[in-house]
Amino acid sequence: MPYKVINTSNGRVLADRAEQAASFFDRFRGLMGRARFQRGEGLLLEPCNAIHTFFLRVAIDAAFLDGDHRVIEAVAGLAPWRATRVIRGARSVLELPAGTLAATLTSRGDELTFELC
């Protein structure tokens, strides 16, 4: 079921078609195999505190979230075949098309809400 993701700190919409990957298999598969990752899409990996972009074809943005969905680390433009470090305190990661964090002025400390569509 898709979610609308809103930055409640500034009212901007990060995604209107975000999916959740909660099972081991869904988190493992993630975005692998997708030819495109379009504006408005997102993938919430939960639980998760580090990601990689192995086998991806596009760069992504990633917002690492604590248990209250507050951004504790924002990674912009993570290129294919890269990995992040483990982010201490992260409970989930919202993966977004590259450029989304800048376009929505989303940064560390912002709080996100997830509304069912």
What does this structure look like?
The protein has about 120 residues and is mainly beta. It has one domain (about 5-115): Jelly Rolls. About 10% of the residues lie in helices and about 40% in strands. The chain contains 2 helices and 7 strands, in the order ββαββββαβ. The protein has helices spanning about 25-30, 100-105; strands spanning about 5, 10-20, 40-45, 60-65, 70-80, 90-95, 110-115. A 7-stranded mixed beta sheet has the order 5-4-6-3-2-1-7. A hairpin with a 5-residue loop joins strand 4 (about 60-65) and strand 5. The radius of gyration is 13 Å and the shape is globular. It starts with a strand and ends with a strand. The model has no long low-confidence stretch (mean pLDDT about 95).
Topology readout:
Blueprint: E1 3-7, E2 12-21, H1 24-29, E3 40-45, E4 60-65, E5 71-78, E6 92-97, H2 100-103, E7 112-116
Parallel strand pairs: 2-3
Antiparallel strand pairs: 1-2, 1-7, 3-6, 4-5, 4-6
Global geometry: globular
Total domains:
1
The strand count comes to 7
Radius of gyration: 13 Å
The top-level CATH class is: Mainly Beta
The percent of residues in helical segments reads: under 10%
Architecture, CATH level 2?
Answer: Sandwich
CATH fold title: Jelly Rolls
Number of helices: 2
- Describe the sheet with the most strands: 7 strands, mixed
Strand composition percent = 35-45%
Q: For the terminal residues, how far apart are their CA atoms? A: 7 Å
Extract low-pLDDT stretches.
none
Which structural class should the secondary elements be placed in? Answer: mainly beta
Give helix and strand order, one letter per element, not per position: EEHEEEEHE
What does the average pLDDT come to? 94
Fourth-level CATH superfamily: Protein of unknown function DUF192
Strand order of the largest sheet: 5-4-6-3-2-1-7
